[in-house]
Amino acid sequence: MRQARDEYGLNFRTVQKIIRHPEPPPFRAPASRPKPVLGPFLVLVHQIVEDDRRAPPKQRHTARRIFERLRDEHGYPGCASIVRDAVRAYKQSQAEVFVPLLHPPGEAQVDFGRAEVVVAGVHVKAALFVLTLPYSNARFACLFPRECTEAFHEGHVRAFTFFGGVPKRISYDNSKIAVVKLTGPHERQLTQEFLRLESHFVFAAHFCRVREAQEKGHVEGGVGYVRRNYLVPVPQGGSWEGLNAPLAESCQREFSRTGGGRDKPTSQLLVEDRAAFLPLPPSRSRLGGWSR
To answer: DSSP characters for 21-50?
Structure first.
């Protein structure tokens, strides 16, 4: 044992433990410290916190108010700090846990938003199509008179042409343009027009769970980013193409931007993104027959 200690540079007690346990012993959580004062009142603390979930948000118990109720209604003899620590620990143990989303190259997200524009002197509430690439933080946007199948198809065609390829996986919400019926958490019965789009460009479609917009949070934020940074003040043009041309130029200028915790510019990350893209089909048909 002394020889093993010297040869491997281990503490002698560590060598003894290895001899006693050829297999690592299972983890044993340390016993919780007894709470002789607060212990009998913990059930009440937890019950108050749980009842607060159904109370109005502005009329829920603070830790101080819980302490006062325990003291006045139940004869709690301890101090407020112990109650405060117990409330904090219980809330942390019940908090919802979120796993950070990692986006590999070659993935995209799509969504429609709304924006006010002026076309030929007429104020119009336009449909704003946005496609974002979470890995590189690049985005493409264009405006249409309304949100419909033709605009949905045309937006994809323009975005794929803009980026010079087709993302291999695209995330969507459950718009009626694409989805006929939900058949599972991520399974959908799709419209014939969406199936045409999918088979033409051969990408994989992913649909978010109902009311779980955070699954495509990058494009959710991207719609607001485009509206705040590219469409203020309210853009004016003689035609829809007169509005979409400067919008595409604004998206292009963003390629030199560094931000969002990244130390590389979008243009450099976009090279890695494009390396995972699918090639554009030989014939990039309009699919929906969009009329300008």
So the answer is: -SSPPPP-PPPPPP-TTTGGGHHHHHHHHH
Pairing of strands 138-144, 107-119: unpaired
The residue range of the domain holding 169 is: 107-275
Same domain? 78 vs 144: no
Task: Find the angle CA(249)-CA(223)-CA(289) to the nearest 5 degrees.
Answer: 70
pLDDT tens per residue, the chain (292 residues)?
A: 999 899 999 999 989 988 888 777 777 777 778 889 999 999 999 999 999 999 998 899 999 999 999 999 999 999 999 999 999 999 998 877 665 667 889 999 999 999 999 999 999 999 999 999 999 999 999 999 999 999 999 999 999 999 999 999 999 999 999 999 988 777 889 999 999 999 999 999 999 888 777 778 889 999 999 999 999 999 999 999 999 999 999 999 988 877 555 677 888 899 999 999 999 987 644 454 443 3
The answer to the question of residue 287 being in a domain is no
Report the amino acid identity of residue 21: H
State residue 179 phi and psi, 5-degree precision: -115, 130
Write the CB contacts of 207 (distance below 8 Å, at least 6 apart in sequence): 171, 172, 173, 174, 178, 179, 186, 188
**One domain, residues 177 and 112:** yes
Amino acid at 40: P
82 token code pair:
């112990």
Two tokens, residue 112: 């429609």
Could you tell me if residue 10 is inside a domain?
Answer: no
The Cα-based distances of 276 to 26, 102, 117, 260, 280 in angstroms read: 43, 15, 35, 22, 13
| Residue 113 bridge partners (DSSP) | 128
Q: Nearest-5° angle of CA 44, CA 48, CA 54?
A: 150
User: Which amino acid, 288?
Assistant: G
